[in-house]
Design brief:
173 residues; mainly alpha
Length: 173
């Protein structure tokens, strides 16, 4: 019995010390794990921010390139009116397809607006063509697109404004 008391006299403090060490180490390791998780999140964010900004820049460039007044200056006029219209509409689609991967970095609502701007611009070109007579020329289509675009209400304007708001909201310090 005396031996049992002797053993308990040394074992109980050792057991208490072991429990304290266990809980302290557990807390330390949990805090270290949380700190590393935060560091990884910050590192991921630091890598993602430049890619997101680049995506917004590319989408802004896309919208500027498909703005009707800019588009007709870049697309070479052809003799055939239908071919010219097709080339303009196809240029918009090619520009969009080239930037399709940017949707993973752009806010989904903003992407919908960009997509709608692309479709609206393509439809605008077709409407300009339909508004001309059957004997119209490519030059007349170009002039009609420019004339109708002068009011400044291009669909690309709203999309550009949304991109700007996203960037200002997401990336302000």
């Amino acid at each position: 019995m005396i031996e049992l008391v002797e053993i308990l006299k040394y074992s109980i403090p050792l057991l208490i010390l072991g429990v304290i060490v266990y809980f302290l180490l557990d807390k330390l390791l949990s805090e270290e794990s949380a700190r590393r998780k935060v560091e990884l999140q910050l590192k991921d964010r630091d890598m993602l921010v430049p890619m997101k900004l680049q995506a917004y820049e590319r989408m802004a460039l896309f919208l500027e390139r498909v703005r009707p007044t800019h588009l007709v200056r870049r697309v070479e006029i052809s003799e055939n009116l239908d071919a010219y219209e097709y080339h303009i509409v196809n240029t918009i689609q090619e520009e969009f397809d080239h930037n399709l991967s940017q949707q993973i970095y752009v806010h989904p609502e903003t992407w919908k607006i960009v997509y709608a701007a692309k479709n609206t611009t393509q439809n605008f070109i077709k409407q300009c063509r339909e508004g001309l007579g059957p004997n119209a020329t490519s030059q007349e289509l170009r002039a009609e697109i420019i004339r109708r675009s002068l009011d400044g209400s291009a669909a690309t304007n709203a999309a550009l404004l949304k991109l700007q708001k996203d960037v200002q909201g997401d990336f302000e310090a």
